[in-house]
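Q: Could you fold this chain for me?
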Amino acid sequence: MENTIINSMKKRRTIYNLGKELPVMKSTLEDAVRGVIKYAPSAFNSQTSRAVILYDENHHWLWDLILSKLVAMIEDPEQKKQTEEKIAGFKAASGTILFFEEMTTIRSLQEQMPLYSENFALWSHHGTGMAQFSVWTVLAELGVGASLQHYGNLIEEEVHAHFDLPSSWSLIAQMPFGSIEKDPGDKDFLPSEERVRVIA
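A: Sure. Below is the predicted structure, expressed as structure tokens.
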């Protein structure tokens, strides 16, 4: 019997060739993201995951900012060209989802439960990882392509200022999304026996 959740997971792939034409209404996509952020699990039900959905000029502004940061760090002309092409691919998408973690809540939990204090940052990353994966999988179910990128260390300050976001929101990842312009191809997997052990 086919498991519907695993079937959905199979559809989730890293799509680099993205276009602007979404196969669903924006409102459908937005409701899906809201649902995931609401129901994704978190340690002690802390609900620290946050998401911001960018379209059009705001989406373009983000990737122009990222490109400007990257090219300023690159001297080699060929590497700079490759970087420009890569970022142009993300900018060609329909939009971007920014994933954040609410640090005020995390710090409060650390104070309330000092026994677990060192673990809350790690559990926060577990939570955002589950939220990101779940959004990615739901997008795949909707026929929307996406990939997951990590440029937060370069752009967080500017992103907070430009979009007037709470300073307590820590930028974790960026997910460009859009129409699937090219199939990602086959994916290789290690044998299950190497990754899962059953001990009876």
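A (continued): The mean pLDDT is 95.
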